[in-house]
Design a protein that fits this description.
CATH topology of chain B: MetI-like fold
Distance between the termini of chain A: 53 Å
Helix content of chain A: over 70%
Structural class of chain A: mainly alpha
Radius of gyration of chain A: 21 Å
CATH class of chain A: Mainly Alpha
Number of helices of chain B: 8
CATH class of chain B: Mainly Alpha
Strand content of chain A: under 5%
Shape of chain A: flat
Number of domains of chain B: 1
Oligomer: heterodimer
Number of domains of chain A: 1
CATH topology of chain A: MetI-like fold
Distance between the termini of chain B: 51 Å
Shape of chain B: flat
Number of strands of chain A: 0
Helix content of chain B: over 70%
Chain lengths: ~220, ~220
């Protein structure tokens, strides 16, 4: 079978799988960004209980493998009476895992804002809320966005794992087609290409655009 | 249904034996990745523009596609071209290639971390390129590379469960087999998580300590 005949027959299935992959990606990005901000701030708390909780969380999720967490969420939680749908379990595991990595980035970003900025805002009698919102946060973004962009590309790659807990995404479809047609080179090759194009020509340019935007906001970018 | 300790105790020897396989897989994969990384580095630093470009595109492609599908690709596609490799060998090759691209970046960063004036001084002293690398540049670059290299050793270790998808008998594979046989997934998967934690958290801490030591030696942070 020629490659075009293969695409004509299985292209739609792969595209439908891609849509699911994008859904998983978007949901887990939202979840991981929220989690990283919460736990990144908690890591900087002066309260030992709050800080300890965040440290345990981060070490736990960074120390065990994502696949193990995924299987745990999907196959083991039902033992405790919590049955999650495959999609929910997948997004939850991805969000929790990458949130742990993201929290460290957020922590580093906050620490990287020069102390003088805090002091100056204090000296100018800004309220604590205004200090954070107008002075600190705009300066954090240019620092954390480059590492966060790398992490997000890793997240896109990691979404492939949800196929193993029966989420019908691109990887799942590719595997399925492979087991029916046995045209491994075509289906896995196409899947690889789709992932590559998603990363290289959609996700990365978008993240670069965000980086430039954030740099401009604090007057560091090219005008 | 709670955690059954006697069942956990019963399967412990099996799990520990499989852990050994996981460690071997991570070690061999890492060794291959270290060497592959050198080749990518070489491709990056040769004076031929075409090789640079091709090298960069290959690295980009491997880095932005999921390891899982790469595994499937190598495992299912190579036999179609008459190359029959065992699951172990496929897994090791894929991990080596995948993480080799990351390690080449670590090497590059380390080489660029050596101050340019060192090169100029060697030039002024009329040292040969080989001598410059061997006695001046590499001894300074190596300590800079160590934390990054350590990070990817831990990273490879945490990605070894993916090998179970192509049937490599490592820890996660053993857990799934034991779970399927006894129809209980709670204990095996939990034990996998705990074993990963026990092995990778100290390793990650050790890497962070190394990183700090290197930063201090570099004068980036104060003691």
């Amino acid at each position: 079978m020629s490659y075009f005949a293969f695409l004509a027959e299985h292209g739609t299935t792969l595209l439908l799988g891609t849509v699911t992959t994008v859904k998983v990606l978007v949901c887990s990005i939202i979840l991981y960004v929220i989690i990283s901000m919460i736990f990144g701030l908690m890591r900087l708390s002066k309260n030992p209980i709050v800080q300890g909780t965040a440290t345990v969380y981060i070490e736990f999720f960074r120390g065990t493998s994502l696949l193990v967490q995924l299987f745990w969420a999907y196959y083991v939680l039902p033992f405790f009476g919590i049955s999650l749908e495959a999609f929910t379990a997948g997004v939850a595991a991805l969000g929790l895992n990458f949130g742990a990595y993201g929290a460290e980035i957020v922590r580093g970003g906050i620490l990287a804002v020069p102390k003088g900025q805090w002091e100056a805002a204090h000296a100018l009698n800004f309220s604590p809320a205004k200090r954070i919102k107008r002075i600190i946060i705009p300066q954090i973004f240019p620092i954390i966005l480059p590492p966060a962009a790398n992490l997000t590309v890793e997240l896109l790659k990691a979404t492939a794992l949800v196929a193993l807990v029966t989420v019908v995404d691109l990887t799942f479809e590719a595997k399925q087609i492979n087991s029916i047609t046995w045209l491994s080179a075509q289906c896995f090759g196409t899947a690889l290409l789709i992932y590559y194009f998603m990363a290289r020509f959609a996700l990365v340019p978008f993240l670069r655009w965000l980086e430039v935007l954030a740099a401009k906001k604090v007057g560091r970018g090219k005008a | 249904m709670g955690f059954k300790w006697d069942f956990a105790y019963e399967i412990l020897p099996q799990m520990l034996l499989a852990t050994l396989n996981t460690i071997i897989a991570a070690g061999v994969g890492y060794a291959i990745a270290l060497v592959v990384g050198l080749f990518f580095l070489l491709g990056q630093r040769t004076p031929y523009k075409i090789i640079n470009v091709i090298n960069r595109e290959i690295v980009e492609f491997i880095r932005s596609t999921p390891l899982l599908i790469q595994l499937f690709f190598v495992y299912f596609v190579l036999p179609q071209f008459g190359i029959k490799l065992s699951a172990w060998l496929c897994g090791m090759i894929t991990i080596g290639l995948h993480f080799g691209t990351y390690l080449s970046e670590v090497y590059r960063g380390a080489l660029e971390g050596v101050s340019k004036t060192q090169w100029e001084a060697c030039r002024a002293l009329n040292f040969s390129t080989v001598y410059t690398y061997r006695r001046i540049v590499l001894p300074q670059a190596f300590p800079i590379a160590i934390p990054g290299m350590g990070n990817y050793l831990v990273g490879i270790f945490k990605d070894t469960p993916l090998l179970s998808t192509i049937g490599v008998a490592e820890l996660f594979h053993a857990a799934t087999a034991v779970g399927g046989y006894n129809y209980r997934y709670l204990e095996p998967y939990t034990m996998v998580g705990v074993i990963f934690l026990i092995l990778s958290v100290p390793a990650a801490m050790w890497v962070r300590k190394l990183e700090r030591r290197v930063n201090v030696a570099q004068g980036k942070i104060k003691q």
